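WARN no homologs supplied; continuing
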Amino acid sequence: MEWLERFAYRKADRIVAVTNAFKVHIVAHGGSESKTTVIRNGVDLGFFVDQPRDDAFAGSLGVKGKFVAAYVGTHGMAHGLDVIFDAAEMLRDRDDIVFLTAGDGAERKLSRHKN
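OK structure emitted
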């Protein structure tokens, strides 16, 4: 697979990475720095406004009155989600704290099976 990765980098006209760390990885694995551009994922914060707390919705999720630690994004190998699971394990006995993840990716199936 590493051969295929290096081949793809060599043959690409342009490479887009979503973080500087990914660009470093790409260049270290045969990608050209000059043809690799970082375009970060982002969000238009204007779409989001403060809302009053929705206790009915929180209740439907089982998180009413609790501190919610949330990760929303890609569930991939490079995203370090094991840190979240380690933290959740350390706080397992805390009824007032819940961990919520939302997103999809290569590691999502694994995260569904963590206890």
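The longest helix spans residues 2-11.
OK
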